[in-house]
Every structure is written in structure tokens, then in C-alpha cells.
Write a structure and sequence with these properties.
This is M14 family metallocarboxypeptidase. InterPro entries: Peptidase_M14. This protein is of the alpha/beta class. 33% of the residues lie in helices and 19% in strands. It has a single domain (3-304), classed as 3-Layer(aba) Sandwich (Aminopeptidase). An eight-stranded mixed beta sheet has the order 1-2-4-3-5-10-6-9. Strands 7-8 form a two-stranded antiparallel sheet. Strand 3 (78-83), helix 3 and strand 4 (112-116) form a beta-alpha-beta unit. The protein is globular. The model has no long low-confidence stretch (mean pLDDT 95).
Length: 305
């Protein structure tokens, strides 16, 4: 499906307020941010301080929460883990929570940890890539951001004491990227987007301005023990991009407004899990996200020591 096939808008014409409103009216709540995310934060009080860093200005109130190391040490480096920037990418949210619950304890005496498990709760509840204004938060980490989700996270991270050593942003690539989200994007912008092959497996997106290939390779090796790494397509690419190495591509993070570009951390990456694979399960996807986070932290700490 291309933008011309999408049921909202006029082919070749970008959406205006009426089309965005029509799109928004089609969305509905399908799961609970409060039940799935907020209730799990209470169980982490011993290790983390739960900080509300914002609230979204939508019809339903969506408070935004971060978990922050309770025993903060200014002599330690800081690591940021973000999930749910695209709310529909489920293992990004639950992988971040699983790391906080099961894996973080091994790092609390080495790093200051900040975990933002669900950056886009409206997107999580409605299973959407965009926010209610049809804006993609993961293209909005920019000055004067058009997405309140992105602006709130940027402001919060900007006031953290010290500099970040590492930032891991947890994402998924799903079959609905081709069936819904790319056609919607084409219609919204009044253009045509070709479909791409959805990679069958895990891959990483590095920041082309600081690829740190050895860092990315370290994560791929760790995740390969948990789930399959996405092979290249027939053109030797992943989602249309040239491959740097097995399961690794790169984007220019800051110019594109990607979440992984919100700081000057030297070690950054975006994970991409494929939940629609016949070889995957929700638990396997969460495990892959946790393995990616822990291997990223291990590498960054090893380089720093």
C-alpha cells in the first residue's frame, strides 16, 4: 500500500487539520498504560526513585515517568535507557521494564541508571507510531520540538547531573510498518513511499556521526545468543539502508531528530526487534532488549575502565 491508497486525505496533498482530526478519530484505546506500566514502577522503589518528568497535554492525562538510581553518585558515569518512543513497539516498553526489574541490580554500583520505559503512553495505549497530532516523536528530538513527548524527555535529560556515557533506545520493526504506518506517512506528507522488506530478526541502528562499530558488534554478539540477527535482503540492505556489519545499519541521529541523538553520549544505539517472526515470542523479544541493554552497558564500562 502506498500513500495514494490510504483512506484519509487527497493523493499528492499533505494533510491539514481536518485530515489529522479524521485520523485521530479513528484511533481507540486498546491497552492500559496505567495497568501495564505505572503499576510496575512501584515494585522498583528500593533501587530507583520514580520521577515524574512531565505530563502530556491530551484529553486523557498521561504522566511521564523515569526511574532514576536512588543512590546517585556524581563520580559514576550515567546510562540512559529509553523505551516506547514509538508506543506501538511493545518490547521497547516491556524490555526496559524487564531490565529495571531483573538486570539493573548488577549495574547500580557502577553506573547511575535512568530508565524511561514509556516515552509515548498515548501511542502505547492506542498502538500507534504517532502522537494524537499525527507527529512522530522519533523524528522530533529537535529544538522547538513539535512533539510534547520528545520535548519533555529532552528537558528531563538536559537537567541530569553530569554527562551521559551511554544511551540505548529500544524499538521494534513490525509488519504493520508496511501495512499501516508507512502508508499513513505517505498520505500525511502527500508523497509516495515504497514498501521495504521487513527484516526477520534483530538489528541495530547506529548514529552515523559516531558509529562506534565495535560497540554495536558487541551488542549483536550478545543478542545473537537470545534471538536471530536479521539477514540482509536481496540488495544487501536492511530497511533500504546499506549494512555496516552483520545486523547493523546507521542513520544521522541528530539531523533526523532521533531519540538516540538527544545527548552527546559517546555510545548510542537504537535496537530493532522483530516481534512478528514465527521464531519470536513476547518474552523472547523482551529478553533480546534486555540482552542489548546489558551488553551495551558492559562494553561502555569496559572501555571506560
Amino acid at each position: 500500500m502506498h500513500g495514494n491508497d490510504y483512506p484519509i486525505g487527497t493523493p499528492g496533498t499533505p494533510w491539514g487539520d481536518a485530515e489529522r482530526a479524521a485520523w485521530r478519530q479513528q484511533q481507540s484505546v486498546k491497552r492500559s498504560y496505567r495497568d501495564d506500566v505505572i503499576t510496575r514502577l512501584d515494585g522498583l522503589n528500593d533501587a530507583f526513585e520514580c520521577v515524574q518528568y512531565g505530563s502530556l497535554p491530551y484529553d486523557t492525562e498521561y504522566p511521564l515517568f523515569a526511574l532514576k538510581s536512588r543512590q546517585w553518585d556524581h563520580q559514576r558515569p550515567t546510562a540512559l535507557i529509553t523505551g516506547g518512543v514509538h508506543g506501538y513497539e511493545t518490547s521497547g516498553v516491556h524490555g526496559a521494564l524487564q531490565f529495571a526489574e531483573q538486570g539493573a541490580g548488577a549495574y547500580l554500583d557502577k553506573l547511575n541508571l535512568v530508565v524511561c520505559p514509556c516515552v509515548s503512553p498515548w501511542g502505547y495505549e492506542t498502538i500507534n507510531r504517532w502522537n494524537p497530532e499525527a507527529v512522530d516523536p522519533n523524528r522530533s528530538f529537535l529544538n522547538d520540538s513539535p512533539a510534547p513527548e520528545s520535548a519533555a524527555l529532552m528537558a528531563f535529560v538536559g537537567q541530569l547531573p553530569g554527562a551521559l556515557l551511554v544511551h540505548i533506545d529500544l524499538h521494534e520493526t513490525t509488519d504493520t510498518d508496511n501495512s499501516e504506518f508507512r502508508p499513513a506517512l505517505a498520505a500525511r506528507d502527500g508523497v509516495t513511499h515504497d514498501e521495504w522488506d521487513i527484516p526477520d530478526g534483530f538489528y541495530l541502528v547506529a548514529d552515523s556521526h559516531k558509529s562506534e562499530l565495535a560497540f554495536q558488534q558487541h551488542i549483536i554478539r550478545a543478542v545473537a545468543k537470545v534471538t536471530q540477527i536479521a539477514p540482509a535482503d536481496g540488495q544487501g540492505r536492511l530497511i533500504g539502508e546499506p549494512i555496516l556489519d552483520n545486523g547493523i545499519i546507521e542513520y544521522a541521529a541528530k539531523p533526523l531528530g532521533l531519540c538516540m541523538g538527544l545527548s552527546d553520549a559517546p555510545f548510542v544505539t537504537t535496537t530493532e526487534v522483530y516481534p512478528d517472526s514465527p521464531n519470536a515470542s513476547p518474552q523472547n523479544c523482551n529478553d533480546a532488549q534486555q540482552a542489548a541493554v546489558q551488553s551495551a552497558l558492559d562494553y561502555a564500562l569496559g572501555v571506560r575502565s
